[in-house]
Amino acid sequence: MMGDSERRILSTNMNENLGDSNSSSILKVYGSYGIVGAVIVAIAIPILLSILMGKRKSKQRGVPVQVGGEVGLAMRNARSVKLVEVPWEGATTMAALFEQSCKKHSQERCIGMRKVTSKEFVTANDGRKFEKLHLGEYQWETYGQVFDRACNFASGIVKLGHDVDTRAAIFADTRPEWLIAFQGCFRQNITVVTIYASLGDDAVIHSLNETQVPTLVCESKQLKKLAAISSSLKTIRNVIYFDDEETSSSSSVNQDMDNWRISSFSEVEKLGRDSSVQPRLPIKTDIAVIMYTSGSTGLPKGVMITHGNIVATAAAVMTVIPRMGSKDVYLAYLPLAHVFELAAETVMLTAGAAIGYGSTLTLTDTSNKIKKGTKGDASALKPTLMAAVPAILDRVRDGVLKKVDEKGGFSKKLFNIAYSRRLAAIGGSWFGAWGLETFLWDIIIFKKIRSILGGEIRFMLCGGAPLSGDTQRFINICMGAPIGQGYGLTETCAGATFSESDDTSVGRVGPPLPCCYIKLVSWEEGGYAITDKPMPRGEILVGGCSVTAGYFNNESKTKEVYKVDERDMHWFYTGDIGRFHPDGCLEIIDRKKDIVKLQHGEYISLGKVEAALMSSDYVENIMIYADPFHNFCVGLVVPSHQVLEGWAQEAGIKYKDFSELCDKPEAIKEVQRSLSKEAKAAKLDKFEIPAKIKLLPEPWTPESGLVTAALKLKREQLKNKFKNELQELYE
């Protein structure tokens, strides 16, 4: 198993990995005459054509619609009068969609994985050892083969003794067998309970006991963890582990699981292949998934997602991403236990695209676990489609800019010219839409940057948290592909809004998906009203086909945030605050739970302040805290090791280790100065700027329980862990 010292979280890992990938050769100095000529062409022609052709007209993307329920302003997608429920006739459930897609694309590539060809351990300067892998090329299975494996697993789990009227759970990282087990369960109408591999013991015990799961599917590396908590798991009878190089470890823990039947995934498949069972297929209102969120407060809640919910979201997203089909290749590495990745992979299965599996630790050529000189997942796969959370894209941007600064001189000037011209083109000129300028700058500058993620990306999906406008534009320009920023929740099966491929704006999350309506209702306490000018504002409600059935075994919480109107439309009250732009697109501007009223009556939005201050180069993570009995806020900051240590070296600051550096008054003052600069740029009020900060040397990880798997802050856990530090900041 991987030790704690090796277990990097997404944000830290991506900062090191993507930032350094191939970036040392991003800006090669070409012959001076060729560069000067190309620059003149790239600047002069677009200016001339922009003058001649003018700006493109804005497009109406969302339109008002009359709906029931609480008084508010509702929008629907402009392209779809009726709500979209299915991608095609007959695909009303996940089982039906999967079977029909597998038959349609039976000979096409479906899922691929890389095998380890060799491994070695290297020792870092601080004495820590890290495993480095050499991975082979992707090995593929067709849609027809994957369908057969899912059917075999379905029969095998029944033959194993699983009662089809009970649930099965998957507790594992993202990999092909995860998806096969998931689809296999639906062949017998078995509800799947999904659990993050990074959840702590208490949350795992709670999730499995609450849903009374008798069969658990996991990785072999989880067996020891399960053995340690086996006495607390009341209903588990069967454990199925994925076959891998750690399989041999299973025998050492069997004695701790005397009451459980331990079987390998391949054994279950063989059992089903030798003795098939007639399928028992679901209907669209059946519960497909109980998805346990890694929620920001307390124990995780299980969201009940129907087959109709998942299918509707997939059908809606299919209308947004242009020209999707079997020629597309998708890089899968985010947690499948998160609704964002689950929805994305369902979309790929619907389109008949190829799904290549990787991991955050092997994603690029310089990722932590990739042996130097060998290919990371992106280089080997060359994906055309990819999903990312904002933390990853922020690290890509920071890493590229760092390398540009290191190059300096003419190379840096050339990059800045290229970036500014591409930015001008995206601003709306006919020439920018036509693509000649994109072609020119790709040859001169951006081709090397694009190679970080394989060089073939044509569309990126982003979700899970707000993406800053600066990062969205930067990635859009450097990767040469649109970023579809989506907004949704587990409770809406990821389906709410999605920015369209031809929308060049940033900072917004697009119009409603065709599977749902978006409604704003006034929140007078927070000062948001649908009558506000120039844009209506209010709490965001989502209604329609993607709204889930509620929380498992939690009727009171379900009634609190799920409502059914007089037309039998289900609405989910998100707690987020948004505003509609004139073209019908939504922008997220606040969150009800993040607003605190200070001593003198001012309201401070913690999330808004954090988003602004994250722009500081010194900030790896930040939490703003506001005590209502004071008139100022304070901050907990996890600083970037690289940036803060670089500053300390230049400033001549002496220190033994990073923890000591974080306590240095000079370091605190320097980070505070940077935060004030970013606050001023974001036009924050004085009371929104943290008066005092504490620098914390250790990163906040999902394993530590301080952030969710999607890297959102767990405020209550952070406040509890650092209550002494917060108290000291107010003294």
Automatic annotation (TrEMBL):
Residues in AMP-dependent synthetase/ligase domain copies: 132-552
GO biological-process terms attached to the record: phenylpropanoid metabolic process
Organism phylogeny: Eukaryota, Viridiplantae, Streptophyta, Embryophyta, Tracheophyta
Key words of the record: Membrane, Phenylpropanoid metabolism, Transmembrane, Transmembrane helix
Organism expressing this protein natively: Olea europaea subsp. europaea
Single GO MF descriptor: long-chain fatty acid-CoA ligase activity
This protein's GO CC annotations: endoplasmic reticulum; membrane
Gene3D superfamilies with a match to the protein in the record: N-terminal domain of ligase-like
Membrane is among the record's keywords: yes
Matching InterPro entries: AMP-binding_CS (IPR020845), AMP-dep_synth/lig_dom (IPR000873), ANL_N_sf (IPR042099)
Pfam families: AMP-binding
Pathway: Phytoalexin biosynthesis; 3,4',5-trihydroxystilbene biosynthesis; 3,4',5-trihydroxystilbene from trans-4-coumarate: step 1/2
SUPFAM superfamilies for the chain: Acetyl-CoA synthetase-like
Protein name: Long chain acyl- synthetase 8
Residues passing through the membrane, by range: 30-52
